[in-house]
Amino acid sequence: MSSATLPATSRTTFLEEYLQPTLFIPELQSKRKAPAMEELVAQLAAAHRTRHPARVLEAVLRRESMGITGLGKGIAVPHARSTLVTERTVVFARSKKGIDYGATDGKPAQLLFLLVAPPLERDPVYLNLMAEIVGAVRLARTRQRLLDAPDFKTFRRILVEATRD
Amino acid sequence: MTEALTEPIDVLIQLQDLDCLIRDMRDPEMASQQERLGFALEDIQALERTRERLAGQVENQRLLQIYERMSRRFVRAIVPVEGRVCTGCRMSLPTSNPTRQADAATCDVCENCGRILYRR
User: Kind and range of the H or E element at A24?
Assistant: First the structure.
């Protein structure tokens, strides 16, 4: 088995330790992609994961310019590795109206997961987190439950359950 | 809190992040896994052009050479100092003369591993 596909145990998933209330945006203010990205990165700074949000944003947008991270079905997983983040972090955000993200299916992004990590020699967790996020939101029912979750605690529970499925 | 970085450090960090992205895109395992998840990757040449432009912004050629040399040895050629520890090699820096000057007015390097250092 490749080191980049290490399985999470049945009890814990990679994702659940990254689900923090300070990294949750229940409803994004922005309706357009660029300001939404700024909001996501600002949350990183607010949670003390970076002191240089402008530079981190640049890394995220540069990755975005290499291929859109909107996966369709209302999901976007912008990601980047940046020297200026202190640790691997995921910011979770929702937008009821959706953000015009340029996904191939044309659907606006309603669930956004910003994944950032410092550059490391070998970082299988980075890819595993990405895979867990994508896997967790594959079902329309889960996506709707995440959008309807009244608070972070419920959102977290739904996402963790979906990751274990 | 938002803080400003000094100019050569700022550009070198951007260069390092860009190098990391280029390396990820060239890594067959990383690229194929990302594509399998649905993330398309395209136009690596554009990244290389951006890299060239960024490298051209580093006025101090000696500093750039140190960066290029260290980035061939390490994924992170430029690392933060935490307390008195180089976060690249985890060695404590000497108290009296914590770092060796890479360039008199700008950056320091770790005496042990040679990485360029900056303070968060």
Answer: strand A24-25
